[in-house]
Amino acid sequence: MTTRISDLPTLRARHPEAVAEAAARRARRPLLGAGGRLMIIAADHPARGALAVGDRQLAMANRVDLLERLVLALSRPGVDGVLATADILEDLLLLGALEGKVVMGSMNRGGIAGAAFEMDDRFTGYRPQDIARLRFDAGKLLLRIDYADPGSLTTLETTARAIDAMAERELPTFVEPFLSRRIDGKVRNDLSPAAVTRSVAIASGLGGTSAYTWLKLPVTDDADAMARVCETSTLPTVLLGGDIGTTVQAQEAAYEKWRKALRLPTVHGLVVGRSLLYPADGDVAAAVDTAVGLL
């Protein structure tokens, strides 16, 4: 019997074992398909309290609406999979939306957006053993480094150990590095070519092996500089979407930046969330199809 979104609260209350059962029978696929490209929909923002899209502060708070958007996005041709935390991935498992998809578990969500401890981004999500137990395909972690914050050393060490634990299980880890700093109390990521280059160099060297490490990188402020940035490492790379604005024009400008960067030899695809799930014109299918077309 097909599970509907409206069935999820009762199913979770009465049959919590259904999650493990759905994970055990899920049809899997290789990380990279025949074309060697990846189109992943990201939805791990809510677990860090990052619910805003543009000026809508709680846009991602409605779980039914978010799941409807995710199910639609995952159904579009060329979409390979999804990145999310346990609550969302388990909903999608129960809905049968992850069959034959790449499933990527989000690992550190402790750096709550806007909190005094935001830079102390602890591993409060998936552990490597969870990803292996559930037969998921990869993990993702956020690595923000503040040169003025001694706590960043702890973040680097825990990130390295997570990479080691994933590699021991032969599971890919997608590392999303930034050089970050607080400006007027808010954490800002430096997207200059020099800063992104340094973040790549640091992230690439973490752990006892880089055999299973991927990079998840922003497109720099100067999109033409991405070629130099990507020369910093031979690790396979995907591009993240980030906050691209709330207008159709801003979205089209982002597509053009992605298009240029996707031509680079180490870049294998896109991991994009809010800009595709909540596009300026409201047409999720069209936004996803456009992004797929860039690949």
From TrEMBL:
Residues 36-292 form the Cgl0159-like domain. InterPro entries: Aldolase_TIM, Cgl0159_dom. This is Deoxyribose-phosphate aldolase. It comes from Streptomyces celluloflavus.
